[in-house]
Every structure is written in structure tokens, then in C-alpha cells.
TrEMBL record:
<feature type="domain" description="Phosphoribosyltransferase">
    <location>
        <begin position="6"/>
        <end position="208"/>
    </location>
</feature>
<protein>
    <recommendedName>
        <fullName>Uracil phosphoribosyltransferase</fullName>
        <ecNumber>2.4.2.9</ecNumber>
    </recommendedName>
</protein>
<comment type="function">
    <text>Catalyzes the conversion of uracil and 5-phospho-alpha-D-ribose 1-diphosphate (PRPP) to UMP and diphosphate.</text>
</comment>
<feature type="binding site">
    <location>
        <position position="194"/>
    </location>
    <ligand>
        <name>uracil</name>
    </ligand>
</feature>
<feature type="binding site">
    <location>
        <position position="104"/>
    </location>
    <ligand>
        <name>5-phospho-alpha-D-ribose 1-diphosphate</name>
    </ligand>
</feature>
<keyword id="KW-0460">Magnesium</keyword>
<dbReference type="InterPro" id="IPR050054">
    <property type="entry name" value="UPRTase/APRTase"/>
</dbReference>
<keyword id="KW-0547">Nucleotide-binding</keyword>
<dbReference type="InterPro" id="IPR000836">
    <property type="entry name" value="PRTase_dom"/>
</dbReference>
<dbReference type="GO" id="GO:0005525">
    <property type="term" value="F:GTP binding"/>
</dbReference>
<dbReference type="GO" id="GO:0005737">
    <property type="term" value="C:cytoplasm"/>
</dbReference>
<dbReference type="GO" id="GO:0044206">
    <property type="term" value="P:UMP salvage"/>
</dbReference>
<feature type="binding site">
    <location>
        <begin position="199"/>
        <end position="201"/>
    </location>
    <ligand>
        <name>uracil</name>
    </ligand>
</feature>
<comment type="similarity">
    <text>Belongs to the UPRTase family.</text>
</comment>
<feature type="binding site">
    <location>
        <position position="79"/>
    </location>
    <ligand>
        <name>5-phospho-alpha-D-ribose 1-diphosphate</name>
    </ligand>
</feature>
<dbReference type="GO" id="GO:0004845">
    <property type="term" value="F:uracil phosphoribosyltransferase activity"/>
</dbReference>
<keyword id="KW-0342">GTP-binding</keyword>
Length: 209
């Protein structure tokens, strides 16, 4: 079973409070989501492999360490996942960015993929899938499946908030995927909204209704 990490850093908790607040406007909301994504990225990348590198400081030669291993890819689930990309790229400027677009079928309520564009070297990359909200888990599962179908073998899921139902759904469908959250909420309501949640992340990011 993949690991579940719920962040407990004071700065993340502080910023998440203002992300949740309905009085927070789109400009500040976008800035806060970017900042929290960057802070979360510190933990999401904690176990990246390192290798030794010989360098020379202004004082002497020494052996230091740099990131080794597989190359990184960030894959936002359109459209709300876009809000987390800039924060991650500020930490990982060399990462490539893919995109997965999904919409929900109005009759079956199942996620339907309408767009997928990934780096050409999928098999060589560690992917971080971003989406602010993990509600039922349907979109996250579909996006992860899409990556796996294209050859990805190392995937992590990064969300601002989640309902227990969504976490369970992803863990059951993709037990090899670790999940990183800024907050784990109480439940889903009858309309599949996370409670207490933060509303519709896409609308709040982009000022739509």
C-alpha cells in the first residue's frame, strides 16, 4: 500500500487556512496555492536519490551531493492542477511538465480523458501528479491510469486537501502510489464536495463560476 503523508508544517497549516476562507479572492488564492505547493514540494522530494560530485569552493576542493536517479515530471490534472505547477517548478526548474485533461460524463459521472500530453521519455521519469482536491478519487485514478498506460512506473499524487473516501479509492486502485496532502478533511457531502473543503478550486483559481 502506498504511503499517505499529511503535512503538519505550521506554514502550510497557516496558508491553508486562508486558502479555505471564502473571503480570499482569486489573486491571493493563486499566490497561496503556489506557495503551499512549493512548501509541499520540499516533502514530496525528500527521498530523491543523491550522488557525489567533486567541486571546488573558494577555499578548497570537496565532495558534495547533487540529485541523481530518474528525471522528474510534473503532471497537473486540468484545470485546477495548473495552480500548483509554478510552486513546484520554483523548486524543480529542470522538471518537464505534462498535462492530463479530464471531464466528468454527466450521465455516468465517470471521468473521461480529453487530453494527455507527456514528455517523450515517460519511462525514465518520476512523476508528481498535482490536483488541489482529492474528492471521490475518480479523476486522480483516471490520470494515474493514463500515465501508467503510457509507460510511467514511478508516480506520486500531490493534493491540497482530500476526503477519506478519495484517499481510500486511490489506495485501492493504485497501491504503489504515495499520496501527499496539506490537509485531510472530514468527509464528502451528498454532492461529492469535500467538507469543510475550500469550494471549487478551479473556479477560485481562475475567477469563474
Amino acid at each position: 500500500m502506498g504511503e499517505l503523508y499529511v503535512m503538519d508544517h505550521p506554514l502550510i497549516k497557516h496558508k491553508l487556512t486562508y486558502i479555505r476562507d471564502k473571503r480570499t479572492g482569486s489573486k491571493e488564492f493563486r499566490e497561496l496555492v503556489k506557495e503551499v505547493a512549493m512548501l509541499m514540494g520540499y516533502e514530496v522530494t525528500r527521498n530523491l536519490e543523491l550522488r557525489d560530485k567533486e567541486i571546488e569552493t573558494p577555499v578548497s576542493k570537496t565532495t558534495s551531493q547533487v540529485i541523481a536517479g530518474k528525471k522528474l515530471g510534473i503532471v497537473p490534472i486540468l484545470r485546477a492542477g495548473l495552480g500548483m505547477v509554478e510552486g513546484m517548478l520554483s523548486l524543480l526548474p529542470a522538471a518537464k511538465v505534462g498535462h492530463v485533461g479530464l471531464y466528468r460524463d454527466p450521465e455516468t459521472l465517470e471521468p473521461i480523458e480529453y487530453y494527455c500530453k507527456l514528455p517523450s521519455d515517460v519511462e525514465e521519469r518520476e512523476f508528481i501528479v498535482t490536483d488541489p482536491m482529492l474528492a471521490t478519487g475518480g479523476s486522480a485514478n483516471a490520470a494515474i491510469t493514463s500515465l501508467k498506460n503510457r509507460g510511467a512506473t514511478n508516480i506520486r499524487l500531490m493534493c491540497l486537501i482530500a476526503a477519506p473516501e478519495g484517499v481510500k479509492a486511490v489506495q485501492e486502485a493504485h497501491p504503489d502510489v504515495d499520496i501527499y496532502l496539506a490537509g485531510l478533511d472530514e468527509k464528502l457531502n451528498d454532492h461529492a464536495y469535500i467538507v469543510p473543503g475550500l469550494g471549487d478550486a478551479g473556479d477560485r483559481l481562475f475567477g469563474t463560476k
